[in-house]
Amino acid sequence: MLIHPNFDPVALSLGPVQIHWYGLMYLIGFYGCWFLAVRRGKSAHMPFAAMAVSDLLFYVALGVILGGRIGYTLFYNLPGFIDDPVEIFRIWKGGMSFHGGLLGVIAAVWLYARSRTLTFFYVMDFVALVVPFGLLTGRIGNFINAELWGKPSSLPWAMVFPSDPDRLPRHPSMLYEAFLEGAVMLAILWWYSSKPRPPAAVCGLFLVLYGVFRSMIEFVRVPDAQIGYLAGGWLTMGQVLCIPMWLTGAALMIWAHRRSSP
User: Fold this and answer.
1) What kind and span of H or E run contains 129?
2) What is the pTM of this model?
3) Which of 1, 216, 260, 262 is 20 to 30 A distant from 229 in Cα terms?
4) CB atoms inside a 10 Å sphere around CB 143
5) Whole-Å CA distances, 175 to 24, 42, 134
6) 147 phi and psi, to 5 degrees?
7) Each residue's pLDDT tens digit, 22-38
């Protein structure tokens, strides 16, 4: 059994200004995505100038933050928002929805592609390739905040979290997500996109991988208290939202490869 380090959520205080670890993880995630995108943008089959990557990252960052926060409010915390509308701006406390962020990124990519007269899937494939790095740092932020922990477990790496009133050893499910949705997905997508692929294939694979990995981890993750289990007590909101993801991803990959076949 392990004990969570119970980190101070504030990484640095500069007078009245406090820099929270959660926000810092987002900044690290955006920088890492930019670095990886610049590197891949030098390849012959996915060309993207460094300046274009910076402009694209600005659009994507807005999509992630606005979509993630609005999505969390609509999918997971609508009653809390109605009681205290200002809560939507307290990002440092956590509460970002991946699925909302994804919708925000899709909208941002559409706007960017339209403004640069690029095809949507060309840009979306490029973005999907590096997003897992941001997922990795975001889940580390969840771990620092001691939130989104899993069900009780007797495994050697089960951890007691300070935010758990029962003080039970639990699955560190946010670390599972950092590994699968972050490191593993990044490695697979980086390898898959190292050769020319038909448009929409990379983002299709992203949707499939995330939908499968997230659905698996949800079986050991405690659902949000304000929602609980759905569909007769065996599905979580995360799993429900992942179903259209992997279905859409599989359809995109089939469509992409059929279009490219002679």
Assistant:
1) helix 120-144
2) 0.89
3) 1
4) 23
5) 17, 32, 14
6) -125, 160
7) 889 999 999 999 999 99
